[in-house]
Design a protein that fits this description.
Blueprint: E1 2-7, H1 15-28, E2 33-36, E3 39-43, H2 49-57, H3 63-71, H4 78-81, E4 84-88, E5 110-116, E6 121-125, H5 127-131, H6 135-148, E7 151-152, H7 155-164, H8 166-177, E8 182-186, E9 203-208, E10 211-216, H9 217-227, H10 238-242, E11 249-252, H11 260-270
Helix pairs in contact: 1-3, 1-11, 2-6
């Protein structure tokens, strides 16, 4: 069985926490679990320790994918689990004339990108964004760039590079999904789905602080198709999708560890979705 976890809010919906609870609950029952975080980004300032972890790992890794990798006790290649990762760096305010507006565009902060497929991993960097980054980050950045042998890319093309990388993310997702009995896909921000293949799931869980709404995967996919092309579900926000649907079940989510897997399993059983090793 496959589940997509996405968020209702642009930030801090609780997707990763929910996905972690779901994965841990399945593992406790002896179920073979895999996951994918197809598209992700980290802040070099707020998530600095993941620059350090990336240096240690020899590839750019994100916080969410790392947490889920540990929760799943995964032996899968972490670069397949999180195939597309962007490192965002806020500009030094003095170098941009203290203009707050410069912080807003996504492309103005993309500094390092990793794109992995089943054959290779490549890193890219945006020289102009790194040049105006905060000085205290540059030492570790140079170490990372040297280790990963990143190639330069123009700032204008960085977002296009990420957009085109979704086809590679889907190849990794398909590969991992075929290897596991229970599979969890985590979206990013409030994107309805991170990639097209991420919509090929049995259930979708939309998470917000304190609540999670469970939807049929097929109904969710049809709703996205009504709003946009199935080829670009990431252009649709979750709020617009669920306004067209009725949830199968709404559950409470606590801040401490919650056995959300049990509730998902009950919905799955009622809907005739198969989890072979799940005890009745």
């Amino acid at each position: 069985m496959d589940v997509l976890v996405t968020g209702l809010l642009p930030y801090d919906s609780g997707k990763t926490t929910f996905a972690k609870f779901l994965i841990e609950g399945a593992i406790e029952r002896g179920i073979d679990v895999g996951f994918s975080k197809p598209i992700s980004g980290i802040s070099g300032w707020y998530q600095y320790k993941y620059i350090v972890k990336s240096i240690e790992a020899g590839i750019l890794i994100g916080e969410d994918m790392f947490k889920l990798h540990i929760a799943a006790k995964s032996s899968d290649p972490i670069e397949y689990e999180g195939p597309v990762v962007s490192l965002l760096l806020p500009p030094d305010p003095e170098k941009v004339g203290w203009k707050v507006s410069v912080y807003s565009p996504y492309s103005n902060q993309i500094s390092v990108i990793r794109i992995s497929d089943l054959e290779r991993t490549k890193h890219y960097y945006v020289p102009s964004n790194i040049e105006r980054a905060i000085a205290s980050l540059k030492g570790e950045l140079r170490k990372l760039l040297n280790i990963v042998k990143a190639e330069p890319v123009d700032a204008k093309n960085s977002e296009k590079l990420i957009l085109n990388s979704r086809k590679y993310a889907d190849k990794c997702l398909d590969y991992l999904k075929d290897r596991h009995e229970f599979f969890v896909v985590e979206s990013y921000n409030n994107s309805a789905a991170p990639t097209a293949k991420a919509l090929e799931v049995d259930l979708v869980v939309v998470v917000t602080p304190g609540k999670a709404a469970i939807f049929s995967g097929s109904s969710y996919k049809r709703a996205i198709l009504a709003l946009s092309s199935i080829k670009d579900p990431w252009k649709v926000v979750t709020e617009d999708v669920i306004s067209l649907l009725e949830p199968i079940l709404v559950i409470d989510v606590k801040t401490k560890k919650t056995d959300v897997f049990e509730k998902i399993a009950k919905v799955a059983k009622a809907s005739n979705y198969q989890i072979n090793s799940l005890n009745s």
